[in-house]
Amino acid sequence: MIKVAVCGAMGKMGKEVVNTITECPETELAAKIDIASSEMYHSIEEAKRVCDIDVVIDFTQPKSIFENAKYCLTNGIKIVIGTTGLSDEQIKELEKLSKENHTGCFIAPNFSTGAVLMMKCAELCAKYFDNAEIIELHHNQKKDAPSGTAIKTALMMSKAKENFTTGNSLETETIKGARGGTSYSDIHIHSVRMPGYMASQEVIFGSMGQTLTIRHDSTDRKCYMPGIMLATKHVVNCNDFIYGLENIL
User: Which mean pLDDT values do the consecutive 10-residue runs of the chain (249 residues) have?
Assistant: First the structure.
């Protein structure tokens, strides 16, 4: 039985994860952690003093995830991270800690299998197009922009070439930010935050006389649960560092 602590248990994703862990015959809910509830543990450290924990699943906030992950990896607790907002430097630091302490760490910008397939398709298409941009759309309570999924998609695409703005003229933004943020290989990322969306992403490719759009929409948080469980079962048996669900599909 895998003993799992859920960090951010009061959040929308956290509640769904708690239900999934509770219903799965292979996992046991060891602790619920959330600073927003007086009935739950307020930190991983507090929960660890009382509970046996094999894996922490973290769906908290960008401002807290890095410290949470560092604590786990330096104290022999394996962690599955669904919280986005980590910088490239922070991810490299967590990889270093994971390897130094022989403690598994699994980071996924998106646990939806459909979203992962969208990212893999974009990676494939990047070889055949010289121009590409990303539009990501989320609910207006999401704190980080661009999304972790968009950043990871751009990173995967960047392996194909160094520049995705071939032939673009010199641009002048009359309104700052109108062209979005510039990511890896000059891929522009546009972030939309609006009620009514949960999580969607479009990758648009263009060449002379044609465009290709790859889009994925998440409409229910249940779509993330199979990927989260897959990651949890993987990390409990391994001490490696993994960035991206596509690495174990």
Answer: 97 97 98 94 97 97 95 97 94 98 96 96 98 98 95 97 95 94 98 97 97 98 97 95 94
Respond yes or no: is residue 142 known to be catalytic. Answer: yes
- pLDDT at position 8: 97
- Cβ(142)–Cβ(59) under 8 Å? no
pTM value is 0.87
What is the edge-to-edge ordering of all strands in the sheet holding 27-33? 27-33, 2-7, 55-58, 78-81, 105-107, 241-243
Residue 216, C-beta contacts closer than 8 angstroms, at least 6 positions apart: 112, 114, 115, 117, 118, 200, 201
Residue 234 annotated among the catalytic residues of the structure = no
**66 φ, ψ to 5°?**
-60, -45
Amino acid at 187: I
pLDDT for res 246: 92
Of 142, 152, 188, 216, the active-site residue reads 142
Secondary element (H or E) of residue 71 = helix 62-74
What is the spatial distance between Cα 26 and Cα 74, in angstroms, rounded to a whole number? 26
C-alpha to C-alpha distances, 111 to 75, 115, 119, 188, 221, nearest whole angstrom = 25, 8, 12, 23, 10
3-state helix, strand, coil in the chain (%, to 5): 35, 25, 40
Annotated catalytic residue, options 138, 188, 190, 234: 138
Please give the DSSP secondary-structure letter assigned to residue 161. Answer: -
pLDDT per position as a tens digit, 157-175: 999 999 999 999 998 999 9
Domains of the chain with CATH codes? 2-107+221-247 (3.40.50.720), 113-218 (3.30.360.10)
